[in-house]
Amino acid sequence: MTTKTAWNAQIDITEEGRKVTADATLIGKGGERRLVGHGVARCNPADQNDPAIGDELAAARALSDLTNKLLDNAARDIESHTHEPVKGSLG
Length: 91
Hints:
By secondary structure, the protein is an alpha+beta fold. It has one domain (about 10-80): Rv1738 (Double Stranded RNA Binding Domain). It contains one helix and three strands; from the N terminus they run E-E-E-H. The protein has a three-stranded antiparallel beta sheet. A hairpin with a 5-residue loop joins strand 2 and strand 3 (about 35-40). The two termini are about 25 Å apart.
C-alpha cells in the first residue's frame, strides 16, 4: 500500500535597505502550519548592493534553519517512541 502526503514550503522575503530577512514556512496537510525557519543577509557596506544575492542568502539560511528544526522534531518523535536517546546525526 502506498500513501502520499504533500507538504508545501513557502518563503517570504523582506528587503529593508541593505538587510534581507526570509521566513521559510513548512505547511502540512489541511493548511496547518508546521515549522518556520528564519534567515538574514546583510550587504557589506564595501560591496555593491545586489538584492538578488541577499534574497538567495537569506532564503538559504531560512531553509537551513527550517531543516535543523525539522530534524530536531524528528529526533524528539523518535525518542518518544523508542524511549531512548537518538545517537548520532539524523542529517
